Every structure is written in structure tokens, then in C-alpha cells.
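Batch 3, record 17
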Amino acid sequence: MSHAHVSNTKRIWTVFGYLSVITIVEVILGIIKPEILHNNSLLGLNLLNWIFIILTGVKAYYIVYAFMHMEGEKSALRHAVIWPLIFLVAYLLFILLVEGNYVFEVFKNSTIKWNF
Amino acid sequence: MSTVTTANSGEKVWGGGDNQPLGADYGKLMMWFFILSDALTFSGFLAAYGFSRFKFIETWPLADEVFTHFPFMHGNPQPMLYVAFMTFVLIFSSVTMVLAVDAGHEMKKDKVVVYLFLTIIGGLIFVGSQAWEWKNFIKGEYGAVETKGGSLLQFVDTDGKRVALADFAATLPEYREQLERNKGKWFMEEATLPSYSVAEVQAGFKAHPNILVRTETIDANKKKTVLSRSESESRLKDASLVVEGANLTRNEYGSKLFADFFFFITGFHGFHVFSGVVINIIIFFNVLLGTYEKRKSYEMVEKVGLYWHFVDLVWVFVFTVFYLV
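Prediction for the assembled complex:
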């Protein structure tokens, strides 16, 4: 082991606290679905979904950096794992969601009735 | 031949020496890149789900109407609560795993044993909960009718509350025998027949004037559209199939792809949890036998821990994509 390990039980429980609070907030928002958030959208996505996606990202950050101890790894390893993932996922989502939306519009606006 | 002499120089590459690429042990490095590729696989599945959802964005099922079961609260819909419980179980088992890794760094065997055991229990509870969720999803609750064109009609009362087929379908004096292998001429059989025939649903609908048809289309208020009584009658004339529960071909919740993706993605994730539990059990016995005590390093627990956290990480995304967004 190239880097010395100190016990960080306190950090683990703090992160568990963060993850729990985020999950509880997500569940409460998911149950009540506040109309102001649910019916207003930004860039084609409603505000509630923006909140869910951002909170998911925060949770993912804490799991990878604290639990998987990515924060203790060398920056080269960190970048080698994280950036390919972020780039490829963002690219894939962009391509597929735009295409999905296009297919939806073809079905909706064309004269072919596909489902009745 | 410098490559040969390194073996004698005492400086081992990836063998536990100080010369480690990226400062990580070989096994740990490979675990990280396995996780990277597995993460991309899951991203592919979830992105495909997104594609299909965007394709049928106006008719996609609403998750909080689909996953409403909670143990001992039958007939009392509780959206989100059960899956929130599952999420907590998995997050908590991640915490006990990281505590086990932490105890491993301090070479405290007893603590590693306790925490790993708790992690295994958490994993088993999660897999069991997933099985229960699948059971409810497959069994269905209300039943629906599929039209000739392939769209799905559900039934509500005048207050918009869902009505099960069993609550209104008539019983007609008709008999339809299930075709089974032993009655077929040549390896012929058919899927389990629904409890009611289309004619029974139509007759029951006629006899109950307070029942309306709800279509898959999502309206401006993000609710499913409820038709008027006369529209309902004309749509129901096109009924061709009674759908109860869910399978890979059709489901009573709406878009057929919804159930396919649900089975495939949560199934693939559940398989990961299951294999994670098996690996954890193997490592657990190794810890008990003192293998890592002799090796003077609990790094194997750390590598398995990485996989276990990854399983938790994937669930965080599956939870968001299937239940929240």
C-alpha cells in the first residue's frame, strides 16, 4: 500500500447521513410531487426531474468518493476511471434521447396511425 | 535484458512492491476497470430505457401508480415507500461494507467478521425484497383490456379511482378450455387464460354505468386521460384481449416495453446483487479462516467492497430512473 490508511469511521457515518437525507428528500418529493416543480420545465425537463437527477449525481459522488475511497486514489486513476464514464454516458444519453424524441414526433405528426 | 533482471532486483511490479502503476495494486486496478465497463453496460441499458420512454413519452406508465405495494398494507396504495425501504437496506449494507474495509486496514479481524456478516444479511434482504416486488408486478392488481390496435384501456370509477376487473366483470355462461401440452396435437399450448373473457368485461361494463375507461395518454396535468361514458363504450368495442399482470409480451400497466425494461434492468441488477452476496460469503469464510490475517493485508475485502459499492451505485440510478423521474 503506497498510501497510509487512517481509520475514518466518522467520515463514513457522516456520508451515510448525507445519503439518507438525500434519499428521504427524494422520496418525499416523489410522493407529494409539488405542482410548481412538476409542471414547470427547464430545457425540456421538468424542475422536479432536474432535482432528482442532480440529487442522484450527488449521491453517486459520495458513494464513489467516500465509500469506494476514490478520494484516496492517485489523481491519474481517478481521471482514468471517471472521465471516460462521464463523457461516454453523456454522449450516449444525448444521442439516444434526441433520437427517441425524434421518433416520437414522427409517430405523432405523421399520417400513419400506429396505436389506436 | 533489463526486463529479466528486474525479477532479481527485489522490486516487484504489481506483486506487492512499491512500484505500482497508478498507485494501486493489480487486483484493485482491474476491479476499477471492470467496474468502469460494467457501469457502461448499465448506462447502455438505462439509456435504452430513456430512448423507449422518449419514443412513447405521451403514453408511458406513471411509476407511482405501478409500484404501490407495501407489506401488510394490502389495498392501501403506498407509492415509493417500499422501494425507499429497499434503497435504505442497500445503502446501509454499503456502510457496513466500508466499515469492514476500514476495520481491515486496522487488522481487526473480529470487527471485519461482524461487518461483513451484516453486509451479507443486507444483501439477502435486498434480493428478497426485489423478489417480492417482482411477484407483485407480475401478479398485477386491477387488470386491463387491450384493443385491437395494441393500446391499453384501464377502468376507473367516476371519482377517477381505479377499479379492478373482478369488481365489475359479469359472469357469462361460457366455457373456454385452456390448451395444454397434453391436449395439444403437436407440442401445442397457450398462455394462462385470464380470469375474465373480453365479452364478460364488456357485459360488466354495460351493467355498471359509473365505470369509465382510462387511456394511456398523459394529459396536460400529467395524469392519465379518463374518457366520457360514451367514448368509453366506443373504445371498449375494440377490445381484443384481457390483460392481467405483467410478462414480457404485455402488461396491464401500459407500454409493453415498460415491463420488458423493468424485468431486464432490475433483473440484471438483482443478478449483480446476488453474485455480490456470493462473493461476500466466500470472502467472509476466508476472513474467518484467517487467510488475510496470514497475508497481513485485508485488501481482498477492499476489492470485494468496491464491487459491492458499485452495486449500490447502480441501484441509486435504477431507483431514480424507474421510480422517481
